[in-house]
Amino acid sequence: MSNTARSASAATTRDELFGALADARRRTVLRLVRDRTPQGVGKDDLALRFAAVTTDKALATVTDDDHHRALVALHHRHLPRLTDAGLLEETDDGLLRVADHPVIDELDVARSDSETTDADGADAVFEAPVDGR
């Protein structure tokens, strides 16, 4: 493989990674799965937790409609982007786990430093690389 092909491949991988992390909801999904790793989390349970976070409701008050919308969003938008970027993996028994990816460790470090930074700052960091300019 030539250096140009390797550079293009690395750029594509980097773009996929930043594209996956640019969306605040995908970062929420990643956090929810990471909190349940190494055992993993089922898609149905993840959808319930995702619905609770995105609708700002307690788990017990999430409606069937909220749950269904979250399940559809996970299936069609968020999980494919996170798995394609190599951040999530599905086990043989259908559970989702955080993949062994170097950026996960960096996100853990950033998370521990989050007491000194705000969420808007993190959003700006991940959204900047995918700006259309």
TrEMBL record:
Residues 18-90 form the DUF7344 domain. Residues 111-133 are annotated as: Disordered. This is DUF7344 domain-containing protein. InterPro entries: DUF7344, WH-like_DNA-bd_sf. It comes from Natrinema altunense.
